[in-house]
Amino acid sequence: MSVKHAISRGLELGRSALQLGLLKSGGRFAAKLRADRLRVAPSSRAVQPQAFLPSRYRYYRTSLKGLAARLQSAGFGRRLGGGSPRNRAAFWAFGLGVGLIEQQLDDDRRSAATCDEIQAVFRKKKIQSSFKPCTSGYKLQDYIIGNQIGKGSNAAVYEAAAQLAPQKCSPPQLGEEEGETAPTLRTFPMAIKMMWNIGAGSSSEAIFKAMSQELVPAGPLALKREEEEITLDGYFGVLPKRVSAHPNVIRVSRAFTADVPLLPGAQEEYPDVLPARLNPAGLGNNRTLFLVMKNYPCTLRQYLKVSTPGHRQGSLMVLQLLEGVDHLCRQGVAHRDLKSDNVLLEFDSDGCPRLVITDFGCCLAQGDSDLRLPFNSTYVDKGGNASLMAPEVATAVPGRGVVIDYSKADAWAVGAISYEIFGQPNPFYRAVGLQSESFQEKQLPPLPSGVPADVQLVIRFLLRRNPSKRPSARVAANMLHLSLWGRKALVNQDSVGMRKLADWLLCQSAVVLLKGCGGPSGNKVEAELQRSFLSNLDLEDLRTAAGFLLYGRAQRQTCILSA
Ligand SMILES: Nc1ncnc2c1ncn2[C@@H]1O[C@H](COP(=O)(O)OP(=O)(O)OP(=O)(O)O)[C@@H](O)[C@H]1O
Question: In its UniProt record, which GO terms are filed under biological process (predicted)?
Fold first, then answer.
């Protein structure tokens, strides 16, 4: 369906739904939609628009009003008004200018209020996962463990299912609406990650402390109450925070410590990390941390080895990574080890890949949510994955007062991974050989010509060396949202008119809400992305995204004309 069609259909549906009173959760929102379209005053229950006016504009407005008043009281107007036609025109133009700015401010205020109301509506809607963890599952004996499904440098991952105790712990099911599920995933819907414990000690406290970053994506019921208390009491201030659920971030449903068992392939594949009890030459501790998650069919890297997504699908995949990164940033977490092996993948009912960021072992998650890390010695860990380290991280030299700002580092890595998504070698891996600390932006290889121009633009911007010229994950995601679904809102604009954008947002919200009423389709990747966008709306971020797009398009136009 074209955007135009979608919008007009959305409006049409919105109108009938409003009449029928179908938009339950959007009661107030519906009134707002109507009020805004008909330009009537919003309901008295609505939050005072003044509260939404950004401080910058409040300042301009006050200054302009003050200036006008001062000019008037000084008799400037009378003198000008009574003077030459040229002066009269100048004064008239000044008044018009103030009027126009007032109108612009009014538009902005209305748009900000619209954003806020839309955000409130979509924030209320909880993420519904089709993965239902069992109600117990805090012991290794609660699980049947199958084959190994993966291995990294810190852990081995096995497929798993709940031991049968149907009334208490029925095996988690994938929702019927999900795409075709492979038989092995039906038998083993869970994955258990067994960390390798060398040197952390064997007490639960010590293990939780040493491997605390792995708990960042753990859900609220992941730890048994006593262990939750250990993590809070024993290491308050040391243990990192936990992030809330998001469709593009892995959810750890259980985390517990247990004695290391002898699992399939252990003696052959990782004998050195086994405890002496299982291998006399092994260096591992007797106990370790286990993390229970949903079992995903493959990693992004595995998927890309066998298929190249189409351009639209590829754009949706990049967008999902940006949404996941933005969610982490907002909660004060930098992943620091983003690569295609650390992204898991499944399919929605349309066959569209859903991406999930996993493996938080290297993340930065400081108690105060600060994404800046003091870098005063070489002992400070900069994070994993040197090839995909953002330039500002890779080039940092330790010293007094040096701080590494990670707030846009993951976004840079998404830019690099995007090449893989569009069927190209990652420019920062050996085959191409660029180094993140020394590359020049003009050395970046071109993306395939079929990749939409706006998407190419986003990737270029993400890979900017200078983080202050690089969009944040949120702004880059907004650029893709605008490009995928809001093209009309930006057409023929040389400046970013908010009214058009606000109208588009209202249409988009109506469409998404109505789609959500339609049942299973609500779990599709596109719908999730749109909900994520609407629940994180911020006027300034949106304006910046539109600005980046328009700037990039203008640059492109200039290049074409001068070629
Ligand atoms: N939930 C899961 N479902 C399916 N496969 C998984 C899951 N979690 C991990 N894997 C597989 O196991 C591999 C290793 O997992 P993971 O990256 O978490 O281990 P790690 O030792 O922490 O890795 P690294 O070497 O990056 O530190 C992954 O690359 C993937 O192939």
Answer: autophagy of mitochondrion; negative regulation of apoptotic process; positive regulation of mitochondrial fission; response to stress
Q: Is the predicted pLDDT of residue 467 greater than 90, yes or no?
A: yes
**Predicted confidence (pLDDT) per residue in 521-559, tens digit:** 556 899 999 998 999 888 889 989 998 998 888 888 787
**Residue finishing a domain among 266, 295, 324:** 295
Residue 116 domain-assigned? no
Domain with 256, as residue range(s), is 140-295
CA of 309 to the centre of ligand 1 (A): 22
Q: How far is CA 535 from CA 122, 217, 421, 475, in A?
A: 5, 20, 26, 14
Beta bridge partners of 353: 347
Q: Which atom of ligand 1 is nearest to the CA of 150?
A: 12
- Nearest-atom number in ligand 1 for the CA of 362 is 27
Q: Does residue 516 sit in the same domain as residue 385?
A: yes
Do 416 and 508 have their domain in common? yes
Asked whether residue 539 is domain-assigned, the answer is: yes
C-alpha span between 104 and 51 (Å, rounded): 17
Give yes or no: residues 420 and 546 share one domain. yes
The answer to whether residues 242 and 216 touch, using CB atoms and an 8 Å cutoff, is: yes
Give CA–CA dist 425/423, Å, rounded.
7
Q: How far away, in angstroms, is 208 Cα from ligand 1 center? A: 19
Non-local CB neighbours of 277 within 8 Å, separated by 6+ positions:
260, 286
Name the CA dihedral angle for 313, 314, 317, 322, rounded to a multiple of 10 degrees: -130
For 389-405, write each residue's pLDDT tens digit. Answer: 999 999 999 999 999 99
Same-domain pairing of 6 and 151: no
Q: Are residues 363 and 472 in the same domain?
A: yes
| Residue 217 amino acid letter | P
Q: Which protein residues touch ligand 1 with a CB less than 6 Å away?
A: 149-155, 157, 191, 193, 293-296, 299, 341-342, 344, 358-359, 361
Q: Structure pTM? A: 0.80
Residue 116 designated active-site:
no
Query: By C-alpha distance, which of 359, 192, 216, 196 is closest to 290?
Result: 192
Domain stops at, among 295, 323, 344: 295
Atom from ligand 1 closest to the CA of residue 342: 17
Q: CATH number of the domain that 248 lies in? A: 3.30.200.20
Considering the domain boundaries, does residue 336 fall inside one? no
Are both 80 and 149 inside the same structural domain?
A: no
| Domains contained in the chain, number | 3
Is 545 a member of any domain? yes
Query: Probe ligand 1: pick from 299, 301, 362, max atoms within 8 Å of CB?
Result: 299
465-469, long-range: CB < 8 A, 24+ apart: 465/391, 465/439, 465/440, 465/441, 467/390, 467/392, 467/405, 467/407, 467/408, 467/409, 467/412
Shared-domain flag, residues 408 and 289: no
Contacts of 543 by beta carbon, 8 Å cutoff, 6+ apart: 496, 498, 501
What are phi and psi for residue 118, nearest 5 degrees?
Answer: -60, -45
In percent, the amount of the chain with pLDDT more than 70 equals: 71
**Active-site hit among 337, 410, 454, 541:** 337
Handedness of CA 359, 365, 371, 376 (dihedral sign): negative
